[in-house]
Each structure stands twice: as C-alpha cells, then as structure tokens.
Amino acid sequence: PLTALKICGDNYVHCSKETAIQIFKDVIYLMGRIPTGSKSDSPHHLFFKMQSIATISIDVVQAAFPDAPWVFVYRDPVEVLVSHLNIVHVERAKCLQSKRRPQHHIQDFLDRSRLTLKQLSNEEFCAIYLSTICDSALQALNAPENKGYAVNYHDALDVLMNDILPTHFNIPLTSNEISRMTDVGKLYSKAREGDFQWTGSSEDSERKQEVASDAIHRASDEFLTFCYAQLENMKHRKT
C-alpha cells in the first residue's frame, strides 16, 4: 500500500491526485480479494498496518475509502526520536533520509518557519520530519465526518481489545480471542534473537528517556510537544 501511495511522486509530480486515489483503490482491491473457492467462513475484514510516513498521504486513503475506520498510534516524541536516532550509523536514520533533498511537506514547514537546512541539527530535522507526520494526522482527525481514532502507544493493547475492535471497527471479540491477544501482547515482535518476552512499554520508555540526549529533548520541546499534546487531548475519542 505504501508504494501505491507514493507512486505519483512527491506532491503528485508524476500523476494527479485522482490517479493516485484510483491506484490505491486498485491495489487494496487486489490485495484483499478472496480467492475463488475459498470457504464461506473466510475473513470479511481487511487490515493494513502502514509505516508512519504513509500519514502524509492520508488524504488519498480517506478519499479512496471514506467509510473505512482507521487508527493513528502515537508515542511520547522523545521516545520516538530515540528510536530513530539511537543507532550506530545515525545518518541512515529513517527520519534523516530526505535531509539533503527534503520532501515538499518538510520544505513547506521550513519555509513557514523561516528555517534553513544548514541551521538544523540531525535531532531538529528528525523532529521536524515527525512533526509533519503528526500535523497530517491531526488534520485528518479534525476533518468533518472522518473515521479516525487517536491512541497512545502505551494504551494500545487495552484500547484495541476494549474499544477499537468491538466499537470502532464493529468486530466483537470472544473471550478466547481476547486471551490470545493478551498472550501475543506479551511478546516483543522486534526481537531478533534470544528472549522474546515483552517486559512492557513502561520499561522500554524508561530506557529511552534515560538515553535521550539534551539535543533530543530540546528538539522535541521545540517541534513536537505541542502536536503531542493535541493528540493526547484527542486520544480514545472517535472524531
């Protein structure tokens, strides 16, 4: 789905927004087809988990499927910045890949703020990158008659079982399904080897807060705190 969203290029330089919408609809249709001969009890619900950068094109998603409910998961910005930047080769961080040639939504932010690339540290540019994603989510969540739902990462499992699936997606859960989800929620999906047991988001957050540099805290305060506060005011509230 992400490739389909990006196929028309940055700011639709290769094709129109209408074409992007149709391509996205076609790709989702192809990916969601139920094979001929499938049993009648085949799944009737189709879910996609998209990378955060897809939020920039959320208007395309909404135009293609205006009645489809969706969820935006967010997290404390300091912890997100650490996740991006606390790597051996920081220049390879996802949020820095467009630093030499910023995408239009980042360049628009720089122009509005009267900032230049030379002025920005890696931490600041990464925070701006994340801020543009956050802004896109807020615009979509505040749009009239949208089907969005904002949920904090730390509440995700409980909210998913108790509200998102049964009420937002209208998918009732059995006690067995809830039990299975609870068990899966105890595993750390990103572990590559060793212990896959998940100790909980609180411990992970504490580690990230401890290793966060002063530069990360400053960048978060300047570019992300306000956006995060707005999402917090909207969480667990269907908009």
Describe the structure using short key phrases:
239 residues, mainly alpha, two-stranded parallel ribbon, 11 helices, 2 strands
Q: What strand order characterises the main sheet? A: 1-2
Which quaternary structure do these chains form?
A: single chain
Order of helices and strands: HHHEHHHEHHHHH
Q: How would a crystallographer describe the biggest sheet? A: 2 strands, parallel
Judged by helices, strands and strand pairing, the structural class is mainly alpha
Radius of gyration: 19 Å
Number of strands: 2
Number of helices: 11
Quote the average pLDDT. Answer: 89
As a percent range, the share of helical residues equals: 40-55%
Strand content: under 5%
Shape: globular
End-to-end Cα distance, whole Å, is 24 Å
Model regions low in confidence, pLDDT < 50 over at least 5 residues: none
Structure overview:
By secondary structure, this protein is an all-alpha fold. The longest helix has 21 residues, at 122-142. A two-stranded parallel sheet has the order 1-2. The chain has 11 helices and 2 strands. The mean pLDDT is 89. It is globular and about 60 Å long. Helix 2 packs across helix 3, helix 4 (77-85) packs across helix 6 (122-142) and helix 4 (77-85) packs across helix 9 (201-211). It has helices spanning 2-6, 17-32, 58-64, 77-85, 104-113, 122-142, 156-168, 175-184, 201-211, 214-223, 225-234, and strands at residues 72-74, 150-152.
